[in-house]
Design brief:
The chain has 101 residues and is an all-alpha fold. Helix content is 75%, strand content 0%.
Length: 101
């Protein structure tokens, strides 16, 4: 049963809720990855590169904006998204044959 932070009476409750959220985040990251896979499939016949700098900039700006709107540290979350983006680019480069990976 999901508890709000105020309803947590012990560290065990807190840990259970953090574990629940971490599992949900991984599920969302897995869903996000399916779109990365599909992007590579679409880019290949379209002749698009894995790394499209204007889109990278847009996604990073979105991460900052979304973090700020949620009351989170925009620098920290932009950094996380930069890592997600780079990981996706490396994967797409391999799928598109842009590297020897």
């Amino acid at each position: 049963m999901q508890k709000s932070p105020a309803d947590c009476a012990s560290m065990a409750d807190i840990r259970a809720e953090i574990d629940r959220l971490d599992k949900a985040l991984m599920s969302l990251f897995a869903e996000r990855w399916t779109y990365i896979e599909r992007a590579a499939e679409i880019k290949k016949p379209a002749g698009l590169k894995a790394d499209i700098p204007p889109r990278v900039d847009e996604v990073r700006r979105n991460a900052r904006k979304n973090a700020e709107a949620a009351g989170l540290d925009p620098d920290f979350y932009e950094d996380i998204w930069a890592r997600l983006i780079q990981h996706s680019i490396v994967h797409e480069q391999a799928v598109l044959g842009e590297t020897d990976i």
